[in-house]
Amino acid sequence: MRIFMRTVLLATCLSGGLLLPACGSGPKYKIDDALLADVSPAEKQGILAAQSEMNLAKEEQSKANSDLAVTERDVTAADSEYGKAKLDVTTAKAERDLAESTKDVKRTADAKAKLEDAELARDVADAKLDWQKARRKAAKAVIEAAEEHYSYAAAHAEQEKARLAQAKGKAPTADFNVSMYDQQAADRQSKWDGAKLDATKAQQRAVELEQKYNQLNQKLTMKRGSAPAGGGYQPPPGGYQPQPGGYPPAGSAPAGGYPPPGGYQPPPGGYQPPPGGYLPQPPPSQPYPQ
């Protein structure tokens, strides 16, 4: 909850174009820049370096928030995939139970194989969701570290101001003491170091879960790759070939198809009528005239 509230606060500040100190309390001990207005820029190198570090921390914050937005989308997508994978397992179990009730050995074996595949796919989706959630957690930890970095850089800038003020014999308050600024910077440094360590651990955990997901996904890919392509009956190469001297199966065409190659072939030399051509035959009771 602490990280969430800080993230929301940071997003609000960045969207409004405000600097982080305006959104948070910032360093407790501060020195007004007007106190050192007459000091040359060359003598303010320590202050300028700390302020540059503040700008770097702000860039880290912006990138960390962008990364968090990406991981949020990835978590949503992975959660949807996991939900579908669980539904597929439920469907596959129902199909297996139905197959078993038919006492059909082949159908039951196919249904069990389908269920095994669905369960492995569900495990892959589950591992992916865990990985994406770990990425999101790591992104939030990086945001926390970036915020602590900014806090330290701001405290360091005030520390450098205090040291310069002391060197110039200037005192912002009657009880001015540089040690208070030193302690303030040291405390912020300690918090930043702790946040960096937490972010590193969170990132390592995300890497571990990514490896687990990759291993399961590779197992699923190899399992599906070993299954017969397309499934079902595959005709022999080149199609059905009739046996010599035999008849092709009903409904199939002979080699070369219909009609026979070259179409119908008449007898050699063509058709020959009988010598003298055809003569009309007289009725049996009517002989030909003489």
Textual characterization of the structure:
It is a single chain. With 290 residues, the chain is an all-alpha fold. 24% of the residues are buried. The chain has a domain of 180 residues: Up-down Bundle (Substrate Binding Domain Of Dnak, Chain:A, Domain 2). It is built from 5 helices and no strands.
Brief description of this entry?
Helix content is about 65%, strand content about 0%. The chain has five helices and no strands.
Name the descriptors.
disordered N terminus, about 290 residues, 5 helices, about 65% helix, Substrate Binding Domain Of Dnak, Chain:A, Domain 2, mainly alpha
Query: Which regions are unreliable across 5 or more consecutive residues at pLDDT < 50?
Result: 1-24, 229-264, 277-290
Please identify, by name, the CATH architecture of the domain at 46-225. Up-down Bundle
Q: H/E element string?
A: HHHHH
> Strand portion, in percent?
under 5%
Question: How large is the radius of gyration?
Answer: 44 Å
Q: Determine the fraction of residues in helical runs and give it as a percent range.
A: 55-70%
Number of helices: 5
CATH fold node name of the domain at 46-225: Substrate Binding Domain Of Dnak, Chain:A, Domain 2
Shape verdict = rod-shaped
Termini gap: 133 Å
Main pleated sheet: none
Question: Could you outline the blueprint of secondary structure elements for this entry?
Answer:
Elements lengths: L1 H14 L4 H4 L21 H58 L2 H63 L10 H48 L65
